[in-house]
Sequence to fold (127 residues):
Amino acid sequence: MRKNSIKNTRINGEVQKELSNIIRGEVKDPRIHPMTSVLRVQVAPDLKSCKAYISVLGDSKAREETLAGLRAAEGFIRRELAHTLNLRNTPEITFVMDESIEYGVAMSHRIDEVIRADQAASGEDTE
Fold:
């Protein structure tokens, strides 16, 4: 099975949906922030491993605690995933913090600041 095959894309989507449901509804660890999202999942073509990219709405302490809670609950999450998905192998899950949303927001703020500074400078030149 190729990495970007239709089957692999479908499996990635199903695993992402089920991981979201399990994290949101079944994991009872208080360290896991309620605003945790599974952004993307990459399952290896041999179905042995999986990278789950997560995002947490909160400060860096909430992100670290959520990541620690998810890593502690990895076995439970994998077992629940095996119950809900009918796959030959249940992949070992590696949780990775995805900071692309925060990066995008920060870049948007910087762009806005540059535009405001440029408009203020051009406003001073015309007066």
